[in-house]
Fold this protein.
Amino acid sequence: MEGMHFKCQQCGECCKRYYVVTLPGEAAKQAELKGETERDFLKNHTRLFLHLFAREYSEGKIMVSNAMLPKRICDAIEAEHGFLPNFFIAVPALVFKREESGYCTFYRQGEGCTIYNARPLECKCFPFISIRPNTDYKKEYPFCHGLEYRDEKISYVDMSFLHFKQMRKYCDLLREKGFTSVWKAWPNKGVVLFENKLAGEIGEEEFLGSIAGLK
Ligand code: SF4
Ligand code: SF4
């Protein structure tokens, strides 16, 4: 059964839990909505984001070796997970800044998402952004009450696949053109995650050095 009843309650529970990736076409619309140039928008509201996953070396993917990462990031990964992979699949991206409370910078209490009409696909698809088969969404996202409401039946497989396709397209573009050609501007600080867990902060030079293997 791939259909599922769902109705987003716009409660904002997902807006305080995750780093949200914005993609090049999306950021232009978000900047327009905020009345800012895309450059200012990216510098003011985003952080660098390097998401790493342990994998064997694989052609056709964005790969980062541990020798390219700052030592303190490698140390943090090893301390947390008990091992340090030689290679990682990497997703270098830009994410929205978050408040100390965890909330996305565009969330306002009582108002909700202030860029709702231009919010990223990731937000539109949530919680159906996992492509793992047989995900128990209610167990994985117990805070998401949209899953308790009976509304139009949606295909979570279609939504997950849409999200997956968009991320793959973005990674292909990075491989083809390089991070600094894909983005008009970027902030000077950010974070590294390994398998969804924070591994530490990273500066612009370190970030670009880590993905120097890209064109
Ligand atoms: S997707 Fe779920 S958690 Fe997020 S705002 Fe909608 S109901 Fe709340
Ligand atoms: S962009 Fe909007 S919907 Fe997405 S996390 Fe931020 S506040 Fe929530």
In short: Helices lie at 24-34, 38-45, 71-81, 121-125, 137-140, 156-177, 179-182, 204-210. Strands lie at 3-5, 21-22, 46-54, 63-65, 87-96, 107-108, 112-113, 153-155, 189-194, 197-203.
